[in-house]
Amino acid sequence: MNRILKMGLLAGLFGFVVTGCYPGGADYTSDLDVVYSNYDDGFNFKASNTYAMPDEIVIDVKIKNNGDTIYEYMKPIYADPILAKIAQNMSNYGWTRVDIADQPGMILSPAALSNTTYFYSYWYDWWWGGYYPGWGWYYPPYYTVDSYTTGSMIMTLADPNADSPINESPTAWIGAVNGVLTGSSDITRALNGIDQAFVQSPYLKIN
Amino acid sequence: MKKLIYIAAFLFVWVTNPLSAQTNTALTYSMGFATGDLSDFISKTSFRGVTLDFRSMTRPDLGIGFSLGWNTFYESKDYDTYTVGTESLSGKQYRYSNHVPMLVSFDYYLKPGEKVSPFFGIGTGVVYTRRNTDMNLYTLKQEAWNFAFQPQIGVQLNNSITSATTIMLKYYYGLKAGDLAEPQSYLALNVGFVFRQP
Q1: Mean pLDDT of all residues belonging to chain B
Q2: What is the predicted pLDDT for the residue at B53?
Q3: Any idea which architecture A34-204 has in CATH?
Q4: A117-127 per-position pLDDT tens digit
Q5: Lowest model confidence (mean pLDDT) among A46-55, A57-66, A189-198, B98-107
Q6: Which of A35, A44, B164, B172 could form a disulfide with B156 if both were Cys (CB 3.0 to 4.6 A apart)?
Q7: B5 domain-assigned
Q8: Binary contact (A34, B90; C-beta < 8 A)
Q9: Ordered DSSP codes for A76-112
Q10: What is the DSSP letter of A140?
Q11: What is the DSSP letter of A33?
Q12: How many angstroms separate the CA atoms of A189 and A175, rounded?
């Protein structure tokens, strides 16, 4: 009996030691920030040096009872510095921002996800559609948009002049900053993430 | 899981069997030093580990039994960019590697019964390895049941006929298996107490 008791104590100590000091992980929300980028390695980014980008960032699309489609936009106090940060990085890499009417070589579509659906691609199709009728862009199968969480900032670059049987251009580049637009009015993490997306995408540099 | 229950039941009966010969049971705190592929994954020393060594003494100088353990390696990597093909991912990585050796072991004692009793031995069996790479809210889990060898050397400092203090050095080498493309190996420095049933 004494022996069984001793073995029981040993087993208890064993369990206590192995479960009582298991290592932790992230301490702060910012420790979870990740920046993802991917590109089409067959695409020639140096074929053009101009791009267009809207002045607003859509965050949701709602359809009212009467059938009207309502677009929700990010407040300018947040959207303006984000768009400025993107423009600054594009400029540093040698790109010139032009108006959509000036036939840009590339179209940059920034989006912030208030949910994890693909709503924003419809909005951008509508936004650019006045100048490129029937144009849209899509994600090639190897871009896994569905893994982004709410609050993610996503940027895509596509060539509006690319021809395809389905009238859509494949995304040439995607940069995503995961989950940084939630829980706080501070967008510093988003701005830093945008910088990082360009740093890790040196193939966008054309100058 | 059923296999583990059978193994645990068998070991429990073996350890508590009053008809067995003299026994030598060591409970030790274990520090781990990664080598090889494990060292490439986590370079930091592990201070989280424990080992239970049970030996039935078939002769005064020869013990046969089992060794169970758990070593957890952990490293928080600095913010960095990881690129595979056209994809790049930047962020902080939290890396974990858990190793649970389950071995049949033999020890030979050079000076049994003396105050200082050095020994050497070898174990063989399996090491369950679970490697987790955490980034953002996602984890990449890789598992393996590595067929393993484990030579060891050590010394027991006998306090009395029923107890001793021990220090031992074990080298675990698990062959390539499962989700892991390389063998998994580490050195363990164990310090602890020995309880004997005379």
Answers
A1: 89
A2: 96
A3: 2-Layer Sandwich (3.30)
A4: 555 555 666 66
A5: A57-66
A6: B164
A7: no
A8: yes
A9: HHHHHHHHHHHHHHHHHTT-EE--GGG--SEEEEEEE
A10: -
A11: -
A12: 15
- The three-class DSSP label of residue A133 is coil
Hey, are the CB atoms on A36 and B94 less than 8 Å from each other? no
Could you give the number of structural domains in chain B?
A: 1
- Nearest Cα residue to B148 out of B130, B179, B169, B122: B122
The percentage of residues in chain B with a pLDDT greater than 70, rounded to a whole number, is: 89
* Sign of the CA dihedral running B123, B127, B133, B134: negative
Interface contact flag, A3 B16, Cβ < 8 Å: yes
How does B53-84 read in b/e, with b if 16+ C-beta sit within 10 Å?
bbbbbeeeebbbbbbbbbbbbbbbeeeeeeee
CA distance linking residue B137 with residue B74, whole number of Å: 17
pTM of the model: 0.72
Domain limits, chain A: 34-204
Task: Quote the DSSP letter at residue A3.
Answer: H
Question: Could you tell me if residue B10 is inside a domain?
Answer: no
Which of B14, B73, B86 to probe the A interface (max A CBs under 10 A)?
B86
Using CA coordinates, name the residue in chain A closest to B91: A34
Q: Residue A45 — pLDDT band, cuts 50, 70, 90?
A: very high
Place of tokens 């360009």: A198
Going by pLDDT thresholds of 50, 70 and 90, the confidence category of residue A142 is very low
User: What's the one-letter identity of residue B46?
Assistant: S
Mean pLDDT of chain A: 77
